[in-house]
Amino acid sequence: MNYDTRYPSVADLKKLAKKRIPNFAFDYVDGGIDDEHGKRKNREAWHKVEITPRYLKDVTDADTTTRIFGYDYALPIGVPPIGLGNMMWPGAEIALAKAAQKHNVPYILSTFSTTKLEDIAQAAPDVCWFQLYVPQKVEVMKHLLGRVKEAGYKTLVITLDIPVGAKRNRELKNGLKLPFSLTPRIIWQSMIHPTWAMQTLAHGQPDFVNVLQYKDGPNFELATFITNFAMNGVTRERIEMIRSMWDGPLILKGVQFDQDFRDALDIGIDGVVISNHGGRQLDAAPASADTLRTLPAEIGAKMTVMVDSGIRTGMDVVRARALGAKMTFSGRSFFWGMGGMGAAGAEQVIEIYRDEISRTLKQIGCGSYLEMDKTWLK
User: Fold this and answer.
1) Distance from C-alpha of 155 to C-alpha of 109, rounded to nearest angstrom
2) What Å distances lie between residue 116 and 104, 144, 169, 175, CA to CA?
3) CATH classification (class only), 10-376
4) Cβ atoms 84, 112 nearer than 8 A
5) What is the pLDDT of residue 95?
6) Residue 131 class from Cβ within 10 Å (0-12 exposed, 13-18 middle, 19+ buried)?
7) CA distance linking residue 345 with residue 183, whole number of Å
8) How confident is the model at residue 184 (pLDDT cuts 50, 70, 90)?
9) CA angle 352-354-358, nearest 5°?
10) Are residues 277 and 255 in contact, defined by beta-carbon separation less than 8 angstroms?
């Protein structure tokens, strides 16, 4: 096993992260919306996917690679976009990008990341994707996309499932708001986690470095700017505009409604990430596994289908393939790894997934990830 066996699972890393970082940082990644029923439902839905093993086979080897958009990735698990990533652990975003490049897995940088997009492209030139929160202003969007192209990103991911800002109760209770302010609660939480605090001081306070240049003026409050930056609901017309400007793979993230899938095909979208934003936006949204299970067959045949929300183990990744996905993502897994182990957490999570995916494939008698299909389902 090529990882620290004191923390052999993502669940162990979550427990470690909770001890090692301030509550406001942990809750930012761990928390969901409202009563967090949707977050729990995501996990429950994956547990309901049963796979029937096939024996009487040689399972010495199992191929964990997957091929999407003409590129072969070593594992079917990637790092999805998370804003304010460096708040979970200072330097988390660049550490994850370097690990993704080393181990050949996708890394998606958020528009609201706290590391310059140009720096991430240098650290992960072969595997970096860019996630776009579509700006309201067309001129800002064009300029930002120009920077993304120039930096070398080849794949663009448009997030649809945040038409409005979320009211997350844990964040409100912790006093986490923009601009980031040192309230007594946050100061106390930082003081009792001195390693995190010292690292944060060394790296500097996280900021939205990729969009600050688009502020209208120095006195324009950051919170208001961020609220007004992105479209309140991305329209088909804007997606069509972006399609005409972007000649690489274009992905829509957050799709769950059948007609939205069909519209995506009609526009010429190359792939979708089925997602309910990890239960962070709408507590009543369907679990991602359930949406994937009921996806019309023609959608999967005509575009690349990927999924996130609730994935925590290599077995979940294999379950997703049985339901039709070619790639999976798990933000909480990777950022719990960073919170628990710092830079070493990136490789820890990758190696845990590598081990669990391989063992699951062998256990069920499947020679490769891409060989998996619905015939393995109970």
Assistant:
1) 11
2) 21, 12, 29, 26
3) alpha beta
4) yes
5) 97
6) buried
7) 29
8) confident
9) 120
10) no
Phi, psi of 124 (to 5 degrees): -135, 60
Cα-to-chain-centroid distance, residue 42: 15
**Whole-angstrom Cα distance, residue 310 to residue 154?**
27
Q: What are phi and psi of 63, to 5 degrees?
A: -85, 115
Cis bond before residue 179 (omega within 30° of 0):
yes
Report residue 344 as tokens: 């070493």
CA distance 54 to 91: 44
Q: Which amino acid is at 43?
A: R
Residue 125: DSSP 8-state: T
What is the C-alpha to C-alpha distance for residues 17 and 20, in angstroms, rounded to an integer? 5
* Domains in the chain: boundaries: 10-376
Global model pTM greater than 0.70: yes
Torsion of CA 366, 307, 357, 333, to 10 degrees: -170
Question: Within the chain, where are the H helices?
Answer: 10-20, 23-30, 37-47, 85-88, 92-103, 117-123, 138-151, 169-174, 184-191, 194-203, 222-229, 236-245, 258-267, 288-293, 297-302, 314-322, 331-341, 344-363
Q: What is the DSSP string of 232-278?
A: SS--HHHHHHHHHH--S-EEEEEE-SHHHHHHHHHHT--EEEE--GG
List Cα–Cα distances, 151 to 117, 146, 225, 233, in angstroms: 7, 9, 25, 27
Residues marked active site are found at 277
Across the strands, what pairs with 68?
A: 71
- Closest to 309 measured CA to CA, from 261, 335, 352, 274: 274
Kindly report, residue by residue over 112-150, the tens digit of the pLDDT. 999 999 999 999 999 999 999 999 999 999 999 999 999
Average model confidence (pLDDT) for the chain?
93
Q: Which of 331, 309, 336 is nearest to 89 (CA)?
A: 336
| Amino acid code (one letter) for 277 | H
